Amino acid sequence: MGANSMLSRFCSNIRISSIQSTKTLFSVTLLPPPLPSTPSFAQSHKWVSFRFSPCILLRDSNRNTGACQNSASVQVVGMSSAEDLGIGLKRKKLAVFVSGGGYNFRSILKASLQGSIFGDIVVLILCSFCILSFMVGCGGAEFVREKGIPIILFPRIKDEIDGVSPTNLVATLRGFEVDFVLLARYLKLIPAELIRAYPKSILNINPSLLPAFGGKGYYGMKVHKAVIASGARFSGPTIHFVDEHYDTGRILAQRVVPVSPNDTPEDLAARVLQEEHRLYVEVVEAICEDRITWRQDGVPLIRRKENPNEFR
């Protein structure tokens, strides 16, 4: 099934409930459709269908109801600023971009909810071409709905729906007061407008030890196949800042994973993925605690929590 038809199917099944009142504060959320095996809602629930356009949903937190608004004009209200700690550290607001199953997103969210990350995921940017992968990969759609996290579809798909434009995307992230943008296996090139709006504030993770096996076309299982075919003895994830090209931003952190002689791409992928989850959480902890510093030559470093004068 093509990307356009999958997106059309997803959008045509989105359901929201009618709104009862406009006098209360709203949070922003997108209610995903039930999976095909899920029974449809009973008529008594009074659900209505609509076709998705560049919009997000406003949900009344008291009545669990919502209405669709244009994303370019939505004002995000009812989302209080993060409280300052006694040490003056402000809780950060995070936006996560996802293309695939959403496993890194889920590990970051779990760490945030458990308190190890001093920040909150306030919005999820889902690649318009990868909706079904996300829904199936980690039960993503239902999981995000349960957590009440807003979803924005990006990029725009020509002739299918009027998706969010780069300019509207930046405006929406500004509305959420996002501090950092985290790419979790997001495969599309990030628009220049977003990079200019968030300098030194966008991170990406790659399943190889960059600069080896990086660049356009190197993603997912293709990376692990290339590593094994090269005879490399080591691989592992790299977290780097994002610039206007694929995988060329400054490297922030890496984790080495051995490549066994009899590894299949799937074996190596599973081993690297485990380290991805750990490394990304550690790095997000560091950025939320303002422990990133920049060397004079432009290389970013992570200060140790135990001793700020040492680097990890």
Q: What is the CATH topology descriptor of the domain at 200-312? A: Rossmann fold
Number of helices: 8
Give the spatial strand order of the biggest sheet: 8-7-6-9-10-12-13
CATH superfamily of the domain at 200-312: Formyl transferase, N-terminal domain
Oligomer: single chain
For the report, how would you describe the main beta sheet?
7 strands, mixed
Could you report the average pLDDT, rounded to the nearest whole number? 75
What portion of residues is helical?
A: 25-40%
Q: Give the CA-CA distance, first to last residue.
A: 45 Å
Which percent range describes the beta-strand content? Answer: 15-25%
Number of strands: 16
Topology order in helix (H) and strand (E) letters: HEEEEEEHEHHEHEHEHEEEEHEE
Q: What is the CA-based Rg, rounded?
A: 20 Å
The secondary structure category is: alpha/beta
- The global form is globular
Tell me what the CATH architecture of the domain at 200-312 is.
3-Layer(aba) Sandwich
| Low-confidence region ranges | 2-86
Pfam families: Formyl_trans_N (PF00551)
Enzyme class: transferase
InterPro entries: Formyl_transf_N, Formyl_transf_N_sf, GART, GART_AS
Transmembrane segments: 117-137
What does this entry look like structurally?
28% of the residues lie in helices and 22% in strands. It has eight helices and 16 strands. The protein has helices spanning 3-12, 103-114, 131-137, 140-147, 166-175, 192-197, 221-230, 265-288, and strands at 15-17, 26-29, 47-49, 55-60, 65-70, 92-98, 119-127, 151-154, 180-184, 202-206, 234-235, 238-241, 251-254, 257-258, 292-294, 300-302. The strands form five sheets. The chain has a seven-stranded mixed sheet with strand order 8-7-6-9-10-12-13, with helices on both faces. Helix 2 packs parallel to helix 8 (265-288) and helix 7 (221-230) crosses helix 8.
